[in-house]
Amino acid sequence: MEAARQSPRQYNVHEAKTHFSKILEAVATGEEVIISKSGEPVAKVVPLRGKVRRTARGSLTAPVVLHDDFDDLSDDPGLAEAFGLDAEGPTE
C-alpha cells in the first residue's frame, strides 16, 4: 500500500520572506510549498527534479534474476554476428 501524500506546507508572504532558506531546504528534499497572500494561495514552490528514493544498496525494488543461459547468443545469429561472435565464441 502506498503512503498517503501529505498536503504542501503553506506560508504567507511575510513568513515566506522570513523563512526563505527553510523553504528552499524543504523543497530540495522533494516537498512542495504554497505561498499565500491575504489567505489565498498565489504560488507553489516545487523541486526542479523529483525526489529520488533509493535504498542503501540501490534503487531496484525486486531482485534481479539471471538465468543460466542469459548470455547464450546461439539462437540469435544476427545479434551474435553484430558482436563478432559465433556458436563457439568470439571471432578474431
From TrEMBL:
UniProt xrefs under InterPro entries: Antitoxin_Phd/YefM (IPR006442), phD-YefM_TA_antitoxins (IPR051416), YefM-like_sf (IPR036165)
Xref: SUPFAM superfamilies: YefM-like (SSF143120)
UniProt cross-references to Pfam families, sorted A to Z: PhdYeFM_antitox
Function: Antitoxin component of a type II toxin-antitoxin (TA) system.
Similarity comment: Belongs to the phD/YefM antitoxin family.
The protein, known as: Antitoxin
Organism: Streptomyces bikiniensis
